[in-house]
Design a protein that fits this description.
- This protein is an alpha/beta fold.
- The strands form three sheets. It has a seven-stranded antiparallel beta sheet. Strands 12-11-10-13-14 form a five-stranded parallel beta sheet, with helices on both faces.
- The chain starts with 11 loop residues before the first strand and ends with a strand.
- A hairpin with a 6-residue loop joins strand 7 and strand 8.
- The protein has two domains: 125 residues, Translation factors (Elongation Factor Tu (Ef-tu), domain 3), CATH 2.40.30; 145 residues, Rossmann fold.
Length: 286
């Protein structure tokens, strides 16, 4: 896995904000926004699953006056009305506590982006990576597991499968985790983009939430899949299944615990290693 500092910050492009919209519902503990931007340079091209870098000047931190962060593109490549490449990203407004002083600091890039208005310009780099590919075999199964803003690449992937690839015969199962229902993105009362695919026989989405969000309990992944445990195990045992995982790094440990309980720890470690070696287990974590 590449470190953030390994990603180049050149060449740089300028993107103009076309729209900014809150994706989280009123009352949620977090703020997540969707930004749609048009890249001023017409030769900027990207593919499904790639990320862009955002460069922001800010207070010097760890010797770096320019802050560079990556955001996965959350929609298909398409031109804006004037022909410029159009990019959609999902940004969570972040802050963190210093382990020593206890002082709270705001995330430079996330707050910068969440504060942008229509017409503002943003400096970007990339695109980078190709984490999730669509298998050539249309009978392949896809198990998509996302946490928080990790839903972004799956929004683009599912849209591509049913709008562009079409005639998909394998199962597409989306397991999406969030602390509360208010923090679900693209699957809430404000925006439910995945409802566009509920009529597809091969698609199903289900949610994993914390059973007691006010107590900061962990997301109950096991409860979310208990009624589907047989199907998910069958998918994991099928040589035609691809598992794509996106979100915060802690989702890796949570899934290892979940599937370790299902198979037994040693068996799961061996199985996951085989899936990874075959290119059928791919993670996009931050």
């Amino acid at each position: 896995m590449m470190r953030l500092q390994d990603y180049p910050t050149e060449p740089r492009y300028t993107a103009t904000v076309l729209s900014t919209e809150a994706l989280t519902e009123d009352g949620a503990d977090v703020e997540v926004r969707e930004l749609v931007m048009a890249v001023d340079e017409h030769d900027f091209n990207f593919e499904i699953g790639q990320s862009i870098g955002v460069l922001v000047e800010g207070a010097e931190e760890f010797g770096h006056p320019i802050h560079h962060r990556l955001y996965t593109v959350a929609d298909l490549p398409s031109p804006s009305q004037d022909g410029r490449p159009e990019i959609t990203i999902v940004v969570r407004r972040c802050s963190y506590l210093d382990d020593y002083s206890g002082e709270e600091y705001v995330g430079v890039n996330s707050n910068y982006l969440c504060d942008r208005k229509t017409g503002d310009r943003v400096t970007i780099t990339g695109p980078f990576g190709m984490p999730f590919k669509v298998p050539d075999d249309r009978t392949a199964n896809l198990l998509l597991i996302g946490l928080g803003t990790g839903i972004a690449p799956f929004r683009a992937l599912v849209k591509h499968i049913y709008r562009d690839v079409r005639d998909w015969q394998g199962k597409v199962r989306l397991l999406y985790g969030a602390h509360t229902g208010l923090e679900l993105l693209y699957m809430n009362d404000r925006r439910d983009d995945f409802s566009n695919y509920y009529d597809e026989e091969t698609f199903e989405a289900f949610k994993a939430l914390s059973p007691r969000p006010n107590w900061a309990d962990p997301i109950a992944w096991d409860y979310a899949i208990e009624d589907r445990i047989g199907e998910i195990r069958d998918m994991l045992d099928d040589d035609h299944t691809y598992v794509y995982v996106a979100g915060q790094r802690r989702i890796r440990d949570e899934l290892d615990r979940l599937f370790g309980d299902l198979y037994g720890k040693a068996v799961w470690e061996e199985k996951k290693a085989a899936l990874r070696n075959e290119g059928r287990w791919v993670e996009l974590l931050y």
